[in-house]
Predict the 3D structure of the following.
Amino acid sequence: MARDERTGNRKTREQRNKVRVPELGYYLIVTDTEATERCYFNGLHESLPYEIQDKLVIRVVETKTRNMLEKCMELTAYEAQYRMPWIVFDRD
C-alpha cells in the first residue's frame, strides 16, 4: 500500500473508541473448583444494579489447590489491570 492511498484515513482523537475504565476495579478470583464459585460470582455480578455492573469487572480462573498462589501471582504479573486478586477455595 502506497503512502498516497493511506492519506486521509486516520481518525482524530475524538473519533477513536473510548477506553472504559471501571471505577470499582478489576477483580481476579482464583479458585480450585470447576463450576461452583464461577457460577456464584457471575450470578453475584449479574444480580447487582446495572450502574454497578458497568463499573466492575470480575474474572474467575480455575486451577488446582496446590498451585493457587503461584497461578494468582502469575496472572497478576501478566495482566496488570487485575489489581485486586482473591483466592477462594473449599476447605471440605
Notes: The chain is about 35% helix and 20% strand.
